Amino acid sequence: MNKRWTIGKIKDFVEKNSESTLLTTEYHGFSQKLQLKCACGNNFEKTFTKFKNNNQRKCDVCQPPKESR
Ligand SMILES: [Zn+2]
After folding, report:
1. Ligand 1 centroid vs 39 CA: distance in angstroms?
2. How many angstroms separate the alpha carbon of residue 57 from the centre of ligand 1?
3. CA dist., res. 7 & res. 24, Å (int)
């Protein structure tokens, strides 16, 4: 079963689960890159899948992407 995400739910999720803010106002699907604003003030792009499932909830400066485990 697929959970249906709307832009409102995503915005809510972003605000409750991170210190980032969602700038995008329309959601078109999991492959879409969302515009987010990090707590440090930088804007960054991330798909919601990565944001939610891979815990990539900050900009590349606060959370460098090459981190692996
Ligand atoms: Zn940042």
Report:
1. 6
2. 9
3. 8
**Beta-carbon-side half-sphere exposure of residue 10 (alpha carbons within 13 Å):** 27
Query: Residue 32: pLDDT band by 50, 70, 90 thresholds?
Result: very high
Ligand 1 centroid distance, CA of 29 (Å):
24
Q: What is the pTM of this model?
A: 0.85
The half-sphere exposure of 23 on its side-chain side, counting CA atoms within 13 A, is: 14
Span from the CA of 2 to the centroid of ligand 1 (angstroms): 31
pLDDT band at residue 2 under the 50/70/90 scheme? low
